[in-house]
């Protein structure tokens, strides 16, 4: 089987989930998030764009309900032994198949947790699911259970993140020689993604961000490429990916002369990132980390040019986003603890002068100060 962890790793994850199920007095959980299925069993697919569900009972037994296209995928990539198929046909309602499965599993009248907060369960399918379960048993929202378990990385997962970070560094190394006057965004993007693939990495859970000129102020991918000018700005946000584990980085690279405004924004971004690093320690919260970022940028008179979040957890993620929870935003009470992989990004966008500056990298939290996973320094990059 195409498993990326030892069986003992999966057993330990299952045992952690069983503790949570028992504490929440659930008889079973219905998992719809692909990240949850991958973490718990190794199951690796993009078939979650259709209805599929992994049923996990309180005794640790599991059964997957999916389509025929994913039967062999599940057998080959996961530890799941029991797989049931629902049939594609006109008028098919797989929520009925799931209800019948739950009945066969003696879960009628049981307390069942449902993983609602995921792209693997659309609003349409969620409504169909609720229609079938409203009189079947006692339904509880179990969206955050595995998400929080995934927040704390095992040694084997940390090794994946470190490999992903090496690939992210390789991508930047591949890009830098191409960032110059006349440089083509298309070739830069190809070089970055190619370096990750050549290093044994995977597709990212969302597109890389690349934009120059006025587009350097954008925080999302968009279609269309341009060539760099003599004095230009190029914003890049990308992630090295290994066995779906992500390590993200973010930089705004300049060509030619550094403007006064670019230098001001870079100095502020670097100071803010260093303040965030200092706050990213046990005893503080995710909200405290955000406050460190906000205070620093406020001191540089940049409050109106910053965002309302400055990073988030990373791990094994699937389309459409590599962003994981929790995030660094105001008032988030989640404590910082060792063995988290966290991406901190300082994003300053001055629309009045069309000046962009970003700086970000992924960290492994420890008992004290976090460990940067990138080998690159935090100096301003000018080509």
From TrEMBL:
Signal peptide: none annotated. Gene3D superfamilies: Creatinase/methionine aminopeptidase superfamily, Creatinase/prolidase N-terminal domain. Residues 13-151 form the Creatinase N-terminal domain. It comes from the Bacteria. InterPro entries: Creatin/AminoP/Spt16_N (IPR029149), Creatinase/aminopeptidase-like (IPR036005), Creatinase_N (IPR000587), Pept_M24 (IPR000994), Peptidase_M24B (IPR050659). Residues 161-366 form the Peptidase M24 domain. This is Xaa-Pro dipeptidase.
